[in-house]
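Working notes for the structural subgroup meeting. M.R. asked for a predicted model of this chain before we commit to crystallization trials. I am recording the input and output together here so anyone reviewing the notebook later can reproduce the run.

Input as submitted:
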Amino acid sequence: MGALLVRNAACLVQVERVRRPLLRGAAQGVLPVLENGYVLAENGRILAFGPSAEAPERADLEIDAKGGFVLPCWVDSHTHLIFAGSREGEFADRINGLSYEEIARRGGGIMNSARLLRETPEEKLREQAYARLLEVQGKGTGAMEVKSGYGLNTEAELKMLRVARWLKEVSKAPLKVSFLGAHTIPADYRDRREEYVRLLVDEMIPRVAGEGLADYIDVFCEKVAFSPAEMDLLLEAGAKHGLKPKVHVNQFNALGGIGVALKHGAVSVDHLEVVGEEEFPLLKNGSTIATLLPSAPFFLNDHYPPARRLIREEIPVALASDYNPGSSPSGSMPFVLSLACVKLRMTPEEAINAATLNGAYALELESECGGIAVGKRADLIITRPVPSLAFLPYAFGSDWIAEVILQGERV
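Returned structure, recorded in token form:
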């Protein structure tokens, strides 16, 4: 892997001459840029950047940005990339008036995906997930989280996590993996939910951790899934096996899951479409990241998370796609960027920070990803010539990405 030189960038975005901390409050709206710049990388890492006049004369691979912007790749810190088949039938059901919870009670939703996944061979899951991985990389995603959660029994969950391990091995982009066996109560345990919780604690979590298949533990705390007390028990079991919490909370109801997550030192609390008044001070006092997933309420035609209030309260905000077959069948981070500006009323600078640097913090990859900095991975988006940074979320239907670079190589 030789040297890469990107020349003639109209603007380098998210430049870090000094490493930036986790962003919150007013700092979330500050986005350092360098006009008329270059980036030099070697062996997949950024070696130097600066004004175009100081660019080296040559390199092994030279790319002319042709007046486009150069950004760090997106860090998508919440996805369900591994799944079998689609759920467009439920899409039609929602159009006809059924809610997410009503579809779940009828055996649809997550249980629908679980049935499909159990029937699908591991090799087929690999093919489908790898195709999705290449698709999102083409849209600028340079690092991501991948969850299990569509198995809902020991062998099917392990099958998903083996696919995730394989993806980590073949991907140019770094991947983190979350064990989400606590996605919902399976149909065959519906009247004996305590037994399923014990199965998670006594069998699944020890096996997942013992085989080194996950970095994090996730629990869906919601009326259609797990209670705060059950989440407390599961996160405690995960901690005993070295799995940090990254959890689904407050998508439809504020049940107290945020407090439980913070008690266990969660890296992030994800969704937050509903936040209780008493929960803002809890989030403000720590480093847990509020990861917002605006394409889910967009697709479900539901209310959006209170991003402006979270930022005003100096709570760090990240953005992610929630790519999954039921509530967000898209891994397009450029579209997430647009939704964040249009629906969450985030500024373009706030949204880009949330989708890059804060997203990297939400995966504990801040020393590797999320910025243009010496020593970080050479994972870059080169845009077509655009009039301004605000054009990126503004032009929500346009293909403004000219090239994607991962580890110093063209995708």
